[in-house]
Amino acid sequence: MINKAAKPIKAGEEFKYLFSVCTLVTRDDEYNEMLDSFTKAGFTEDICEYLYIDNIRDNTFEAYKGINRFLQRALGKYIIICHQDILLDYDRAEDLIKRIDEVDRADPNWAVLGNAGGINLKYLSLYVVQGSVPMLYETVFPLRTMTLDENFLVVKNAANLSLSNDLSGFHLYGTDICLLADIAGYNSYVIQFKLLHKSLGNPDKSFTELESRLVKKYTRAMRPRFFRTPFARLYISGSRLKTWISNSGAILFFARKYYQLFKKPKDYQLKIKK
Predict the structure, then answer these.
(1) Mean pLDDT over residues 69-80, rounded?
(2) Engineered SS bond to 145: which of 8, 117, 173, 175, CB 3.0-4.6 Å?
(3) Where are the beta strands (DSSP E) in 181-273?
Protein backbone atom coordinates (compact mmCIF):
# COMPACT_ATOMS: atom_id res chain seq x y z
CA MET A 1 0.00 0.00 0.00
CA ILE A 2 1.25 3.49 -0.91
CA ASN A 3 2.00 5.88 1.94
CA LYS A 4 -0.98 8.17 2.67
CA ALA A 5 1.28 11.24 2.50
CA ALA A 6 1.58 10.75 -1.27
CA LYS A 7 -1.24 12.17 -3.39
CA PRO A 8 -2.22 10.55 -6.70
CA ILE A 9 -2.86 12.57 -9.85
CA LYS A 10 -6.25 11.56 -11.22
CA ALA A 11 -7.42 11.48 -14.81
CA GLY A 12 -9.34 14.53 -15.99
CA GLU A 13 -8.81 18.21 -15.33
CA GLU A 14 -10.36 20.25 -12.58
CA PHE A 15 -10.49 24.04 -12.67
CA LYS A 16 -12.13 26.38 -10.19
CA TYR A 17 -13.40 28.72 -12.92
CA LEU A 18 -14.22 28.50 -16.58
CA PHE A 19 -12.37 31.74 -17.34
CA SER A 20 -9.58 33.81 -15.80
CA VAL A 21 -9.54 37.36 -17.21
CA CYS A 22 -6.05 38.83 -16.84
CA THR A 23 -5.08 42.44 -17.55
CA LEU A 24 -2.13 44.80 -17.11
CA VAL A 25 -3.71 48.00 -15.79
CA THR A 26 -2.41 51.54 -16.29
CA ARG A 27 -5.76 53.37 -15.98
CA ASP A 28 -8.26 52.31 -13.34
CA ASP A 29 -11.20 54.11 -15.01
CA GLU A 30 -10.64 52.33 -18.31
CA TYR A 31 -10.12 48.98 -16.60
CA ASN A 32 -13.36 49.38 -14.62
CA GLU A 33 -15.20 50.14 -17.85
CA MET A 34 -13.74 46.96 -19.34
CA LEU A 35 -14.79 44.94 -16.27
CA ASP A 36 -18.32 46.28 -16.51
CA SER A 37 -18.58 45.26 -20.15
CA PHE A 38 -17.36 41.73 -19.33
CA THR A 39 -19.93 41.32 -16.56
CA LYS A 40 -22.76 42.56 -18.79
CA ALA A 41 -21.59 40.10 -21.48
CA GLY A 42 -22.08 37.15 -19.13
CA PHE A 43 -18.58 36.76 -17.67
CA THR A 44 -20.00 36.67 -14.16
CA GLU A 45 -18.15 35.77 -10.97
CA ASP A 46 -19.65 32.29 -10.80
CA ILE A 47 -17.71 31.27 -13.93
CA CYS A 48 -14.96 33.87 -13.99
CA GLU A 49 -12.13 35.32 -11.92
CA TYR A 50 -10.52 38.68 -12.66
CA LEU A 51 -6.79 39.15 -12.13
CA TYR A 52 -4.81 42.33 -12.75
CA ILE A 53 -1.36 43.79 -12.34
CA ASP A 54 -1.26 47.36 -11.04
CA ASN A 55 0.96 49.43 -13.34
CA ILE A 56 -0.91 52.67 -12.68
CA ARG A 57 1.87 54.56 -10.89
CA ASP A 58 4.86 52.35 -11.67
CA ASN A 59 5.53 49.35 -13.88
CA THR A 60 5.19 46.56 -11.36
CA PHE A 61 5.75 44.10 -14.22
CA GLU A 62 6.34 44.49 -17.93
CA ALA A 63 4.16 42.30 -20.12
CA TYR A 64 6.31 39.16 -20.40
CA LYS A 65 6.94 38.69 -16.69
CA GLY A 66 3.48 39.92 -15.78
CA ILE A 67 1.69 37.54 -18.13
CA ASN A 68 3.85 34.67 -16.90
CA ARG A 69 2.54 35.49 -13.42
CA PHE A 70 -1.01 35.32 -14.77
CA LEU A 71 -0.34 31.98 -16.47
CA GLN A 72 1.05 30.56 -13.22
CA ARG A 73 -1.67 31.96 -10.96
CA ALA A 74 -4.86 31.60 -13.04
CA LEU A 75 -7.43 29.05 -11.86
CA GLY A 76 -9.61 29.18 -14.97
CA LYS A 77 -9.83 26.46 -17.59
CA TYR A 78 -9.29 29.20 -20.17
CA ILE A 79 -7.08 32.21 -19.48
CA ILE A 80 -8.13 35.42 -21.22
CA ILE A 81 -5.23 37.87 -21.54
CA CYS A 82 -6.57 41.19 -22.74
CA HIS A 83 -5.92 44.91 -22.98
CA GLN A 84 -7.74 47.26 -20.62
CA ASP A 85 -9.05 49.24 -23.62
CA ILE A 86 -11.43 46.60 -24.97
CA LEU A 87 -15.20 46.50 -24.54
CA LEU A 88 -17.43 43.47 -25.06
CA ASP A 89 -20.11 45.46 -26.87
CA TYR A 90 -20.97 42.67 -29.32
CA ASP A 91 -20.34 38.99 -28.56
CA ARG A 92 -20.96 37.43 -25.17
CA ALA A 93 -19.61 34.65 -22.94
CA GLU A 94 -21.86 32.05 -24.58
CA ASP A 95 -20.46 33.04 -27.99
CA LEU A 96 -16.89 32.51 -26.81
CA ILE A 97 -17.84 29.15 -25.25
CA LYS A 98 -19.36 28.13 -28.58
CA ARG A 99 -16.23 29.15 -30.52
CA ILE A 100 -13.97 27.28 -28.11
CA ASP A 101 -16.14 24.18 -28.42
CA GLU A 102 -15.99 24.36 -32.23
CA VAL A 103 -12.18 24.47 -32.22
CA ASP A 104 -11.93 21.85 -29.49
CA ARG A 105 -13.99 19.32 -31.45
CA ALA A 106 -12.04 19.91 -34.67
CA ASP A 107 -8.56 20.22 -33.14
CA PRO A 108 -8.11 19.32 -29.46
CA ASN A 109 -4.42 20.24 -29.84
CA TRP A 110 -5.10 23.98 -29.85
CA ALA A 111 -3.53 26.19 -27.21
CA VAL A 112 -4.20 29.86 -28.11
CA LEU A 113 -7.14 31.67 -29.72
CA GLY A 114 -7.56 35.33 -30.66
CA ASN A 115 -9.51 37.75 -32.83
CA ALA A 116 -6.66 38.90 -35.10
CA GLY A 117 -3.45 37.35 -36.38
CA GLY A 118 -1.06 36.68 -39.22
CA ILE A 119 -1.97 33.54 -41.17
CA ASN A 120 1.17 33.65 -43.30
CA LEU A 121 3.63 36.21 -44.67
CA LYS A 122 0.92 37.86 -46.77
CA TYR A 123 -2.48 37.36 -45.13
CA LEU A 124 -3.93 38.76 -41.91
CA SER A 125 -7.12 37.42 -40.39
CA LEU A 126 -9.11 40.00 -38.42
CA TYR A 127 -12.44 39.96 -36.61
CA VAL A 128 -12.42 43.09 -34.48
CA VAL A 129 -13.85 46.59 -34.32
CA GLN A 130 -10.70 48.69 -34.05
CA GLY A 131 -11.06 52.28 -32.83
CA SER A 132 -12.88 54.44 -35.36
CA VAL A 133 -11.95 52.12 -38.24
CA PRO A 134 -14.84 50.11 -39.78
CA MET A 135 -15.20 46.46 -38.80
CA LEU A 136 -12.28 44.39 -40.07
CA TYR A 137 -13.01 40.76 -40.72
CA GLU A 138 -12.51 37.66 -42.80
CA THR A 139 -15.40 35.43 -43.77
CA VAL A 140 -13.81 32.04 -43.07
CA PHE A 141 -13.21 30.89 -39.49
CA PRO A 142 -11.55 29.49 -37.51
CA LEU A 143 -8.20 29.97 -39.25
CA ARG A 144 -4.93 28.45 -38.09
CA THR A 145 -2.48 31.25 -37.54
CA MET A 146 1.22 31.85 -36.95
CA THR A 147 0.73 34.91 -34.70
CA LEU A 148 -2.03 36.60 -32.70
CA ASP A 149 -2.68 40.20 -31.73
CA GLU A 150 -2.37 40.99 -28.03
CA ASN A 151 -5.70 42.83 -27.57
CA PHE A 152 -7.52 39.55 -26.77
CA LEU A 153 -5.96 36.12 -26.26
CA VAL A 154 -7.53 32.92 -24.95
CA VAL A 155 -4.96 30.46 -23.63
CA LYS A 156 -5.83 26.87 -22.71
CA ASN A 157 -4.62 26.46 -19.12
CA ALA A 158 -3.93 22.74 -19.59
CA ALA A 159 -1.36 23.55 -22.30
CA ASN A 160 0.96 24.89 -19.55
CA LEU A 161 2.38 27.65 -21.71
CA SER A 162 4.60 30.53 -20.67
CA LEU A 163 6.25 33.47 -22.39
CA SER A 164 9.98 33.67 -23.07
CA ASN A 165 12.13 34.49 -20.06
CA ASP A 166 14.72 36.23 -22.26
CA LEU A 167 12.31 38.78 -23.76
CA SER A 168 10.74 41.79 -22.07
CA GLY A 169 8.59 44.79 -22.91
CA PHE A 170 5.01 45.35 -23.99
CA HIS A 171 4.92 44.12 -27.59
CA LEU A 172 4.87 40.87 -29.58
CA TYR A 173 3.99 38.56 -26.70
CA GLY A 174 1.13 37.26 -28.84
CA THR A 175 3.72 36.19 -31.40
CA ASP A 176 5.96 34.71 -28.73
CA ILE A 177 3.24 32.57 -27.15
CA CYS A 178 2.13 31.25 -30.57
CA LEU A 179 5.70 30.28 -31.46
CA LEU A 180 6.19 28.53 -28.13
CA ALA A 181 2.84 26.76 -28.50
CA ASP A 182 3.92 25.50 -31.93
CA ILE A 183 7.21 24.20 -30.52
CA ALA A 184 5.27 22.42 -27.76
CA GLY A 185 3.05 20.71 -30.34
CA TYR A 186 -0.03 22.95 -30.21
CA ASN A 187 -1.88 25.10 -32.77
CA SER A 188 -3.26 28.64 -32.59
CA TYR A 189 -6.39 30.01 -34.28
CA VAL A 190 -8.18 33.23 -35.14
CA ILE A 191 -11.85 32.89 -34.19
CA GLN A 192 -15.04 34.91 -34.59
CA PHE A 193 -15.33 36.83 -31.34
CA LYS A 194 -16.36 40.40 -32.00
CA LEU A 195 -15.39 43.15 -29.57
CA LEU A 196 -14.40 46.81 -29.59
CA HIS A 197 -10.70 47.59 -29.29
CA LYS A 198 -10.38 51.33 -28.76
CA SER A 199 -6.76 51.57 -29.84
CA LEU A 200 -5.24 51.16 -33.30
CA GLY A 201 -1.96 49.95 -31.79
CA ASN A 202 1.34 51.75 -31.36
CA PRO A 203 4.31 50.27 -33.25
CA ASP A 204 6.78 52.75 -31.77
CA LYS A 205 10.55 52.55 -31.30
CA SER A 206 10.19 50.03 -28.47
CA PHE A 207 8.22 47.76 -30.84
CA THR A 208 11.04 47.83 -33.42
CA GLU A 209 13.65 47.12 -30.75
CA LEU A 210 11.68 44.18 -29.36
CA GLU A 211 11.09 42.87 -32.88
CA SER A 212 14.87 42.71 -33.34
CA ARG A 213 15.36 40.94 -29.99
CA LEU A 214 12.64 38.42 -30.81
CA VAL A 215 14.32 37.54 -34.13
CA LYS A 216 17.70 37.12 -32.39
CA LYS A 217 16.15 34.99 -29.64
CA TYR A 218 14.51 32.54 -32.05
CA THR A 219 17.54 32.46 -34.35
CA ARG A 220 19.49 31.13 -31.40
CA ALA A 221 16.69 28.90 -30.10
CA MET A 222 16.26 27.19 -33.47
CA ARG A 223 19.97 26.84 -34.21
CA PRO A 224 21.18 23.45 -35.49
CA ARG A 225 23.18 21.50 -32.94
CA PHE A 226 24.70 18.19 -31.95
CA PHE A 227 23.86 16.80 -28.54
CA ARG A 228 23.96 13.59 -26.61
CA THR A 229 21.88 11.74 -24.06
CA PRO A 230 23.17 8.98 -21.77
CA PHE A 231 22.35 6.47 -24.54
CA ALA A 232 22.39 8.36 -27.85
CA ARG A 233 24.16 10.99 -29.95
CA LEU A 234 21.90 13.16 -32.11
CA TYR A 235 21.77 16.15 -34.42
CA ILE A 236 18.76 18.45 -34.90
CA SER A 237 18.12 21.33 -37.29
CA GLY A 238 15.33 22.91 -39.29
CA SER A 239 16.50 21.08 -42.41
CA ARG A 240 15.34 17.49 -42.86
CA LEU A 241 18.20 16.78 -45.26
CA LYS A 242 20.86 18.18 -42.92
CA THR A 243 19.31 16.30 -39.99
CA TRP A 244 19.29 13.02 -41.94
CA ILE A 245 22.90 13.42 -43.16
CA SER A 246 24.27 14.64 -39.83
CA ASN A 247 22.72 11.73 -37.92
CA SER A 248 24.79 9.29 -39.95
CA GLY A 249 27.48 7.37 -38.10
CA ALA A 250 30.41 9.05 -39.88
CA ILE A 251 29.26 12.63 -39.24
CA LEU A 252 28.51 11.88 -35.59
CA PHE A 253 31.95 10.26 -35.22
CA PHE A 254 33.80 13.34 -36.50
CA ALA A 255 31.58 15.70 -34.53
CA ARG A 256 32.35 13.74 -31.38
CA LYS A 257 36.07 13.98 -32.13
CA TYR A 258 35.77 17.76 -32.51
CA TYR A 259 34.21 18.11 -29.06
CA GLN A 260 36.77 15.71 -27.62
CA LEU A 261 39.65 17.82 -28.93
CA PHE A 262 38.32 21.36 -28.52
CA LYS A 263 35.64 21.35 -25.82
CA LYS A 264 36.16 20.26 -22.23
CA PRO A 265 33.66 19.97 -19.33
CA LYS A 266 35.19 23.04 -17.68
CA ASP A 267 34.12 25.13 -20.70
CA TYR A 268 30.53 24.63 -19.54
CA GLN A 269 31.12 25.16 -15.84
CA LEU A 270 28.98 27.74 -14.07
CA LYS A 271 31.18 30.09 -12.09
CA ILE A 272 29.85 30.21 -8.55
CA LYS A 273 30.14 33.61 -6.89
CA LYS A 274 31.76 33.56 -3.46
Answers:
(1) 98
(2) 117
(3) 187-190, 196-197, 225-229, 232-236
